[in-house]
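User: structure tokens for this one?
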Amino acid sequence: ATGDVLASLIEDIASALFEHLDDEEQFVLPLIAEHLSPAEWAKLGAHGRSSLTSPKQQMQILGAILEQATADERARMFAPLPPPVRDAWTAQGQPAYDSYIAEVRGS
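Assistant:
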């Protein structure tokens, strides 16, 4: 019964989150494109990443993003990264994320 309640609450939160993200894409991103330079946008991203205090957190966020990304989006994300960073993701980050997410999802 507790699991059902939790699942229902998560569905409610997800619904609100997806509505918020849709609004961001529709209303905020066009404003960003109009008013921020690529350098300013990159600085904002760096600031957000700086709040992730550990490499483990960074890998979990990257894994979650990549899980939802298309093949083209993944390729564009990895293209500017140096080969050692890409190799580290393949050798360590992806397996760690897969293990983490299997534990979270109970699979």
